[in-house]
């Protein structure tokens, strides 16, 4: 995995090689980041959250 | 060799375990990450080619709508959009459970403040008031008397049409725990107790998970609840009523199972993958 950077603070983010789109990372700057497919590899963006979550 | 599609938005441990087990069985597993996806209703075939899809979105609305779009393209999705839709609404699902003779706590519906007060007096306090949609134990309220009930309902009246439907239920005096049983097709491979000092036992709200033995009664109830809603892979919330025995609270059509796997040692993800594989080959 090429070095990915946090879109909020610009610092590098440790993302494992087998990471999937949709994985979330709590960055040290406080941002929650979502890995996503750009069509040209993976990148990070700020996680928008989900309002109507359901689950356990 | 069959191929599969995993539909999801957040790749939690549940999804990663399922993907791993699916990759061991299927020839190919494609990912459909909904936040980046465009779904088509009208192009048949071509777009998504897979023998089976599994829906894992943590959002009810995304789960229902994306499943509907994939089904329009002829894809077999577990669970079906219909099963997700009916189990996502407590009033609709309670109706189906009762019609199929699945025991549930005494439950009433009311649409206004005075009628909700009347419903509660028919049941007797304390009562539990729930919105018909929404989860993780959010907005679940216990009213010990009329004054508390009025405060709860008055507050919800401001929250929009969905919150003006009051689902009023008898408060079940559980033994400090409830049960979450997992159904996969015709089997109930595992169940856990969710133990908590508070009456809301959801693990997301601090409840502790412990393994539970799947009794024949629990198995029968779980399968009948899932059948009633058309749910193939589901998590059934069950409470132990001191007099009436096991009662079904609800069925989750996109169940979480990482806690079930952790405390019971049952590889629920593998069992789901095997079920999908069996269905894909049909
Ligand atoms: N009538 C009731 N009597 C006693 N406890 C109840 C009752 N209804 C719900 N509970 C408790 O409240 C918690 C959440 O209930 P419920 O499953 O209805 O809500 P939910 O938020 O949809 O849950 P989930 O996250 O499992 O989908 C559970 O711990 C359950 O045991
Ligand atoms: Zn950062």
What can you see in these coordinates?
- The complex is a heterodimer of chains A (56) and B (282).
- Chain A is mainly β.
- Chain A contains no helices and five strands.
- In chain A, a hairpin with a 4-residue loop joins strand 4 and strand 5.
- Chain A is globular.
- Chain B is α+β, with helices and mostly antiparallel strands.
- Chain B has three domains: 3-78, Rossmann fold, CATH 3.40.50; 107-170, Dna Ligase, domain 1; 173-275, 2-Layer Sandwich (D-amino Acid Aminotransferase, Chain A, domain 1).
- In chain B, 35% of the residues lie in helices and 26% in strands.
- In chain B, the strands form three sheets. Chain B has a five-stranded antiparallel sheet with strand order 11-10-9-12-13. Chain B has a four-stranded parallel sheet with strand order 2-1-3-4, with helices on both faces.
- In chain B, helix 1 crosses helix 9.
- The mean pLDDT of chain B is 93.
- The interface between A and B is medium-sized, with 17 and 31 residues.
- The complex binds adenosine-5'-triphosphate (ATP) and zinc ion.
- Zinc ion binds next to loops of chain A.
């Amino acid at each position: 995995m090429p070095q990915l950077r946090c879109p909020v603070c610009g610092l590098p983010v440790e993302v494992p090689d087998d990471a999937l789109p949709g994985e979330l990372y709590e960055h040290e700057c406080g941002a929650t980041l979502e890995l996503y497919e750009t069509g040209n590899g993976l990148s990070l963006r700020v996680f928008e959250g989900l309002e109507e979550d359901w689950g356990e | 060799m069959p191929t599969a599609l995993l539909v999801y938005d957040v790749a939690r441990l549940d999804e990663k375990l399922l993907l791993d087990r699916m990759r061991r069985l299927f020839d190919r597993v494609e990912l459909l990450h909904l936040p980046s996806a465009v779904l088509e209703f009208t192009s048949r075939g071509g777009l998504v080619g897979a023998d089976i899809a599994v829906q894992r979105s943590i959002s009810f609305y995304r789960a229902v709508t994306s499943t509907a779009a994939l089904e329009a393209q002829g894809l077999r999705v577990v669970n079906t959009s219909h099963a997700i839709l009916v189990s996502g609404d407590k009033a609709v699902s309670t109706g189906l459970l009762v019609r199929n003779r699945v025991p549930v706590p005494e439950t009433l519906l009311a649409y206004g403040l005075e009628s909700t007060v009347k419903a509660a007096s028919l049941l007797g306090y304390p009562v539990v008031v729930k919105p018909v949609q929404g989860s993780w134990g959010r907005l679940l309220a216990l009213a010990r008397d009329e004054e508390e009930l009025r405060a709860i309902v008055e507050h919800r009246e401001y929250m929009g049409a969905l919150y003006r439907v009051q689902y009023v239920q008898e408060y079940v005096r559980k033994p400090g725990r409830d049960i979450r049983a997992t159904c996969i097709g015709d089997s109930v491979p595992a169940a856990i107790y969710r133990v908590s000092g508070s009456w809301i036992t959801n693990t997301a709200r601090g409840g502790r998970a412990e393994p539970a033995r799947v009794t024949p009664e629990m198995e029968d109830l779980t399968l009948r609840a899932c059948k009633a809603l058309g749910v193939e892979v589901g998590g059934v919330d069950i409470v132990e009523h001191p007099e009436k025995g096991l009662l079904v609270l609800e069925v989750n059509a996109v169940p979480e199972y990482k806690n079930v796997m952790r405390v019971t040692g049952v590889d629920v993800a593998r069992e789901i993958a095997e079920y999908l594989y069996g269905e894909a080959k049909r």
